[in-house]
Amino acid sequence: MSDFLLQTAFNASYAASYMALIAVGLVLIFGVMGVINFAHGELYMAGAYAVVFFYAGLGLPFIVAVAIGLVFVGCLGMLMELALFRPLRTNPLGGLIASIGFLLMLQTVAVLGFGLRNQNVPPVSQGRITVGGAFLTYERLYVILATVGLLLALWLFLRKSKFGWALRACAQDREAASLQGISINQTARYAMFIGAGLAGVAGALTAPLVAPTPYMGHTVIVTAFIIIIVGGIGSLEGAVLAAIIYAFVHTFVTTFFDGVIANIVGLLLMLAVLVVKPQGLFGVRERA
Amino acid sequence: MHERNTISGAGWIGILALAVVLLAVPHLVSFSQQELLVFLTINVLLVVSYRLLTLTGEWSLAHVVMMGVGAYGSALYSKLFGFPVPLAMLAGAVTAGLIATVLSFPLFRMKGFYFLIGSFAAGEVIRLIWKRFTDPFGGPKGIQRIPGFPEIDLGFLRVDFYQPENYYYFVLAVVLVSLWVLYRIERSRIGLTFHAIHWQDKLSESVGIDTFGHRMLAFVVASFFAGVAGALYAHYLSTVNPNQFNVDTMVYVLIWTIVGGTSRWYGPILGVIALTIIDEVILRGIGADQWRPLLYGAILICAILFLPNGLESLVIRAGEALRGRSASAVTGAAGAEQE
C-alpha cells in the first residue's frame, strides 16, 4: 500500500510540474496584459509539435528540440501580443475572444501539417529510479527538474533584475509604470515571450510521454483555468501551490475512482473557490 | 432610440418578401442543404436566446450545455417515460430552465470573467455527468433511437416529419414564435431593465432594481429557449451524445454572435446566416472541410479587430446613409428590415 501511495505521489509530482509551468505562464500573461489567454493550451500543443518535428522528425538532440520549442512558442506569443493584444488593449474581453480565434487557427495548422493522429515520439531515456516498489522514469524526472529550474530562474528574474521590476510594476499599475518611463509595449512583448515560452517548454518536455495530437491543448487549458482560479488569478506563487494541490487531488481521485470523476471533482473545486473565495486560496489583492 | 409602433407599407412588403423567401427556400436547395437549413433554423434560435443573456452583460459558456439539457431531457422523457414527443420537448425545455434557476445561485455571485469561467465549469460538470453515468444518459455514446416527431395523418394530408422539408416548416414555426416572445421580452420593461443592469448595475441596484433576479430571469429564459432548440435538434437527429454539446460547439455560438453583433435583435441572426453560407459555399463547395476552424478563427479575429460591433453595424450604417438621403427614407427602412 505504501508503494502504491508513493507511486501515486510520484505521478502527481510529475503532473504538478508541467501544469505549474503552464499555469504560471498564463498568470504572467494575465498579470501584465490583463488578458486571459484561451490559446494557452494550443501554445502548449505547439511546443509538443516542435519536439515532434525537430526531435522525432529531424533527429536533433532532445534538449535542442526543447530549446527550439521554447523560442518558437515564445515568438508565437510575441506575435499574439503584436497582432491581437496590442490593438485590443482597451478591450480585455476582445483580447480573450481574439485568443479563441488564434486557438482555432493553431489547431487547424497542426491538423493540416501533421494530421489528426497521435504522434509517436521516441523515448528520450529508458532509465528509471526505483524506490521500494515505486518507480519514477528519468523522462518524468527531467520534467520535474526542468520545472524547478525554470521557475526558480523566473522567480530570480522577476525579483532581482531591473527588467523583472519593470514587469511587476506593469502588472501592478500600467499607467503608473508608464509614467516612470517603463515601456509598456516592450514589457508586454517580453511577458508574452516568457508566458508563451513556458507553455511551449511544458509541451516540449512532455511530448515523449503524451503522444501529441492537435487537440491536446483542450484538457490542458481547462486544468490551467482551474489552477489559476484556485490559486488566485494574479498570483504566481498561488499558481504553483494550486498546481501541486490540484495534481495531487486529481491523481489520487483518478487512481481510486476514475478520470471523469477526477475532472468533475476538479471543476467543482474551482466552482467552490469561485463562490466562496473568488480571489483564490492564495490570492493577494494586488496582482503578480 | 425612437420606436415605430406601426409598420409602414414598405415594412409590410419587406415582411411579405421575407415570408415568401422563408417558405420557398427548401424548394430551392438540394436535399443535404435542406438538412442544413433545419440546423440553421435551430441555430438561429440558439444565438438569439444567447443574445438575451448577453443583454445583462454576462457572457455564459454554458449555453450549449443548456441546449443539451433540453435535448437529453426531451429524449429521455419521450423514450423512457413514453411522453408524447411535443410534450417531451416542452418538458425538456422546462428542465433546462429549472437547471438554470438552480445554477443561478452560485453563478450570479460572479461577474465578468469569473462568470464566464464559472459557467463553463458548471456546464462541463453537467456534460461530464452525461458522459460518466451510462444509466440513464448512455455514457459517451449518448442516447440513440430517440422517437421522431409523430407524423400527422388527416386522411387527405399526411405530413411525415422525417422529411427535412416538412421538419423545416415545423422548426420554422416554433422558432418564429420563440423569436417573437424573445423580442417582446426585450421590448418590455424587463428587457429595458436588462440593458440598465448591463451598463449601470450599481446604479440600477441603488434605484431598487433586483439585479440578481433580473440576471437570473435572463439566464432562465435564455436557457429555456436553448432547451427548445436542443429538443428540436434531438428529435430530428434521433441521437444525442455528450460531444455534441462540448466547448467547441460553444465557440461556434460565440463566433456567430460576435461576428453578427449583439446590440440589435437581428445581429446574431446575420452572423449565423452569413457564416453558414460562407461555410457551405466556400468550404463544402471546394471540399476543404479541414480548413473550417482556420477560417472561423480568422473571421473571428478580423471581426474583433476591424468590425467590433459586428455585421449589424454595417446594416445600421447603410440604413442611416440611405435615410440621410431623405427622399428615400422609406426604402431605407425597408432595406434594413430585409437584410
TrEMBL record, chain A:
GO terms for biological process: amino acid transport. It is a multi-pass membrane protein. It comes from the Bacteria. The chain crosses the membrane at residues 12-36, 48-80, 92-116, 141-158, 190-211, 223-249, 256-276. GO terms for molecular function: transmembrane transporter activity. GO terms for cellular component: plasma membrane. It is found in: Cell membrane. InterPro entries: ABC_transp_permease, BCAA_transport_permease. Pfam families: BPD_transp_2 (PF02653). Keywords: Amino-acid transport, Cell membrane, Membrane, Transmembrane, Transmembrane helix, Transport. PANTHER family: AMINO ACID ABC TRANSPORTER PERMEASE PROTEIN, BRANCHED-CHAIN AMINO ACID TRANSPORT SYSTEM PERMEASE PROTEIN LIVH. Belongs to the binding-protein-dependent transport system permease family. LivHM subfamily. This is Branched-chain amino acid ABC transporter permease. It comes from Pseudaminobacter soli (ex Li et al. 2025).
